[in-house]
């Protein structure tokens, strides 16, 4: 088992910057903005032969009694409970605050191994400036600078030292072993993305609060179901460009788009109480452009009446007609309704996106389609299709070779797409058909 290190501290002390340093990534959003991180954010790190897991947490207020701060405190408390070592981060330049004392009191009461880190200590001596932190009662104060990378190696060594870790054994992955399926849950703010993931996990893993924009980062959570490993990615809700005012929300949009592009399957969540909006169409369009496999789910289905349901179904047919290949489900994340069949469609979409199509079968289907309906003549030329082969996966790409294929119309490409989809049962994934015209060696010869 990999040791777990939890980063804890009040807002804006540099926990997310430290997280990025320890994981050698840019997974956590960083900005000079207090209260940015809200969920538990997990990452993998390695120093020497030892691998470890780091948990980034939101600003901790142990005695928060209501609102979003109470939910953030619950997330931090859960991270501390999961951790083998707690790294308590304080601001070396701001000095000790009352909130630091509250957090230190909470950590002393737990009795877990704890490391006190004074961040933002670049250019500071280890003398008088740091002595005030000893009053927190957590032992030695270790100055670091996460922004400049100072003291990082020593920090990890100090954190892992009390665990007495044995020398790690070499891992041997079996041939053909596949990694987890990356499943990104995307949609507009307040559609219920975090609630859905919490319901799947059976715990309050993500902050789910009745306030649009609660999730700001793309949070990744490992999950296993029926022997299949998943990586669930909760994304920030995407609003219309004209309504994104905060600079930090622009960072969230970028992280969401990156999460969609890196996912294997995207679950597009639509709020039944709001209907299908123009923004839902934009998100669906980006998923399609990215070539991701997609499953549609309408959440809060229990909160609308029959008339609204009928309007919503018609709206999906008209506004999301370009996603006809995707499975559609009506669910209630809060009441756990309709979630079982959702997994079947996710597995089917992933299988379709990674489907292997043999060249003989593709060529046979192509020639049968041409025999059934030949492509339209363009002037003196009629496109002549000779054979087809697979040019890629996730999304599947079929390359058709022949002569004068630049004249093949979009309508005929859709006709071919329908044939290929039916044969290989390509449900839930975009399919791209590329036409490649053979070069005529006689065109370049002098007459």
UniProtKB/TrEMBL annotation:
Belongs to the TRAFAC class TrmE-Era-EngA-EngB-Septin-like GTPase superfamily. EngA (Der) GTPase family. Signal peptide: none annotated. GTPase that plays an essential role in the late steps of ribosome biogenesis. The lineage of its organism: Bacteria, Pseudomonadati, Pseudomonadota, Betaproteobacteria, Burkholderiales. Associates with the 50S ribosomal subunit. The gene is der. The keyword Electron transport does not apply. SUPFAM superfamilies: P-loop containing nucleoside triphosphate hydrolases. This is GTPase Der. Residues 3-167, 181-354 form the EngA-type G domain.
């Amino acid at each position: 088992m990999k040791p777990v290190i939890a980063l804890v501290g009040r807002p804006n002390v540099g926990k997310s910057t430290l997280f990025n340093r320890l994981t050698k990534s840019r997974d956590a959003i960083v900005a000079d903005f207090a209260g940015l991180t809200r969920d538990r954010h997990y990452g993998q790190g390695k120093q020497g032969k030892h691998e470890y897991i780091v948990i980034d947490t939101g600003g901790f207020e142990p005695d928060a009694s209501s609102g979003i701060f109470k939910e953030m405190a619950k997330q931090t408390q859960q991270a501390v409970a999961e951790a083998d070592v707690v790294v308590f981060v304080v601001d070396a330049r701001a000095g000790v605050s009352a909130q630091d004392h509250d957090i230190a009191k909470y950590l002393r009461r737990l009795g877990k191994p704890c490391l006190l880190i004074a961040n933002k200590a670049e250019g500071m001596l280890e003398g008088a400036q740091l002595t005030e932190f000893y009053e927190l009662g957590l032992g030695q104060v270790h100055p670091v600078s996460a922004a400049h990378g100072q003291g990082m190696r020593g920090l990890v060594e100090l954190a892992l030292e009390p665990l007495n870790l044995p020398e790690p054994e070499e891992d041997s992955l079996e041939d053909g072993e596949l990694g987890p399926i990356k499943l990104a849950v995307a949609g507009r703010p307040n559609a219920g993305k975090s609630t859905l993931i919490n319901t799947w996990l059976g715990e309050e893993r993500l902050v789910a609060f009745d306030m649009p924009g609660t999730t700001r980062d793309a949070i990744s959570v490992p999950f296993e179901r029926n022997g299949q490993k998943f990586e669930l990615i909760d994304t920030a809700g995407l609003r219309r460009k004209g309504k994104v005012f905060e600079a930090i929300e622009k960072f969230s949009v970028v992280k969401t788009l990156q999460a969609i592009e890196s996912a294997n399957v995207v679950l597009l969540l639509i709020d039944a109480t709001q209907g299908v909006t123009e923004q839902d169409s934009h998100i669906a369009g980006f998923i399609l452009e990215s070539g991701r496999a997609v499953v549609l789910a309408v959440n809060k289905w229990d909160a609308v009446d029959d008339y609204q349901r009928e309007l919503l179904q018609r709206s999906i047919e008209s506004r999301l007609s370009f996603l006809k290949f995707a499975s559609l489900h009506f669910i209630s994340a809060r009441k756990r309704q309709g979630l079982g069949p959702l997994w079947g469609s996710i597995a089917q979409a992933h299988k379709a996106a990674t489907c292997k199509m043999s060249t003989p079968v593709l060529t046979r289907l192509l020639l049968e389609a041409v025999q059934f309906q030949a492509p339209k003549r363009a002037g003196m030329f009629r496109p002549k299709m000779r054979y087809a082969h697979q040019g890629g996966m996730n999304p599947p790409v079929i390359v058709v070779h022949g002569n004068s294929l630049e004249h093949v119309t979009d309508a005929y490409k859709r006709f071919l797409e329908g044939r290929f989809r039916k044969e290989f049962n390509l449900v839930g994934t975009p399919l791209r058909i590329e036409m490649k015209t053979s070069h005529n060696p006689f065109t370049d010869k002098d007459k």
